[in-house]
Amino acid sequence: MCHVLIIEDEAFIALDLQDMVATVGATTFAFAETEREAVEEARAHRPDVIMSDVMLREGTGPGAVELIQHEMGPLPVIFITATPDACLNCDPFAVILAKPVADTAVRQAFQAVAPH
Known about the structure:
116 residues, alpha/beta
């Protein structure tokens, strides 16, 4: 079982990401559109993998990840963003992809970081 927290403020993108990683092992999902919601969702169900946009309507993905990891320890993270420069200070084990995302790239990144 692999629980994924998807932090993305565009619903269609979040659902696309869910579909992509469901085919390679993700089994349950939580969704958040803001930094605050992401922390609340992580507290409700500890994620095995976090997939996050960088720029959110309220707060940032890296900010949410930092708060979550401060409470829960290191977790695998995939940042998916159209602005990779905004993620220069992101956790060093994070994988950064550019939008629009390619299914293959997302699946490969997920398989690289997801627990087996």
